[in-house]
Specification:
This protein is of the alpha+beta class. It contains 20 helices and 25 strands. The strands form eight sheets. It has a five-stranded mixed beta sheet. A four-stranded mixed beta sheet has the order 2-11-10-9.
Length: 612
Amino acid sequence: MVMLVSLAQVASAQDWQTSSSLMGDSKYGANFQRYDYVNPDAPKGGQLNQTVPGTFDSFNPYIVRGSPAAGLAPFGGGLLYDTLMEQSVDEPSVSHALIADAYKYPDDYSSATYRLNPAARWHDGQPITVDDVIWSFKVLKENSPMYARYYENVTDAVALNDREVEFRFDQKGNRELPKIMGDLVVLPKHWWEGTDAKGNKRDITQPTLEPPLGSAAYKISSFKTGSEIIWERVPDYWGAKLAVKVGRENFDRRRYTYFLDTNAAWQAFTKGGLEDFHEENISRRWATAYNFPALQAGDVIKKAFPSASRAKFQGFVINTRRPQFKDPRVRKALTIAFDFETLNRTSFFNSYVRTKSFFVGGDLASSGIPEGKELAILEPFRDKLPPELFTTAYDLPVYDSPKAERANLQAAVKLFGQAGWTIKGGKMINEQTGEQFKVEILGNDSTDEIISLPYINSLKKIGINASLRIVDPSQYINRENNFDFDMVSTVLAQSESPGNEQRDFWSSKAADTPGSRNLSGIKDPVVDALVDRVIFAKDRDDLLASTHALDRVLLWNYYVIPQYNKAERWVAYWNKFGMPEKQPEYIGPDLDSWWIDPQKEKALAAKYKSIN
């Protein structure tokens, strides 16, 4: 105990903080009462209806096995659990107090101490304890690939007293690590180590369809395995008056209905009753299909919300675990063969811009050629990197004419030739084995055809045996988790302050970990070193230079074929809501700040049978 007190005294070099930030102080300061855009008097009540693709078979989202139900999340607490702190919805890289009412850390970033709010409770009324925090940390590191990478440098969690827990790190200087300990979801140790109604001992390492005990604003009310789950608001939720909760989480119930076909889900939205809020990601539908009767009558509202948060990277992941993709010249050729401009014009109504960075938009994206600090970071790896990285700005081919198409495909064929492939009889043949080059794109919905089929046609023009395989969502998740694919389209969200999560995206260790987000199977000592450089950046300037260097190395190795992005969110919703006039510019619409307007809902129900 003497040793623990001594370590706590070291940590006291920093004062307790109720909000954390990696980019300057929060705009709300220390006296944060509520988000400035919410209606603090928003009424509670009503039901939010939403649809979900696929199916589910588990209420345990923190293991690789199983398909978790809507409302649960593999990272964070979802609707069921609270985290130590909650990430801000209107400021980047900021978190505010939740289960923990404050945290602190020493000047060398060697640890972080979190102090629990004594009011924090589980739904059964028992207090959330330091033991719960420590147990959660250990089981998540052991069973969740995502948390294992995120907290790789956290060696231990130790109780200092009945309210304080100290997380100890094996390295100093990681500016982000004290803050992101606040992202830790806290699970109920006493429930998971207890027995179910049949007397069977529960097991956190296995899927379950027993509704777990939670701590957040909602709990599972009812469900039909694989087809529907209904969540209900907890009336005596312990955190309802916290600053991050005031005016939010207003729906009494949240119902999720599953559809195996997204087109059927879309039709359900147009009829009403099963989906009240629809976020659109198909530009053709956004441009041409919003002409159904309810929208024309003003009962459905279509709106584009600007979003200042970092755009998500989207692309075709090339699985380098497969032998045909080992050569970077092959991966570059496959990248050159992707015709974005024609796709954007013919299918997307020119709604998108081409993605040219893994850190889309803002100051984290690399550009031009490396200079200054970035060049100094890359210089020790010069002999292990493509020479062009140092002399040529990364760019992607443009398909703006038939002539350009011919030139780009010829360039792709030339690269294949340099890698030992040649076209014979209209087929791209390996000169040593005589086998035709083959690519299968894995998808889980018919909408995958929109982007995949034009690309497949381009590949076929240069003799590649290309195809798209659509599988059911459960099979898709299992195959992706086990890296059983040639190519798969993925969406990758980055924060304004990249850090430990980069290990899960790119590290050699993650490449061999089922369920990790290193879908490409990258095993590159240079990438590993640059990931660590990002994680242990000394300040913002150092972080920018390190991230630029990492971005550039990933791009020039052609692990992913970049697709496209947009800087706004497209949504449509049935006119049953009340909402604050202002929505957070950072994320766009904050659905949790909306509420059901009984008069509007009653009017819709009188007009549409499907809503009754």
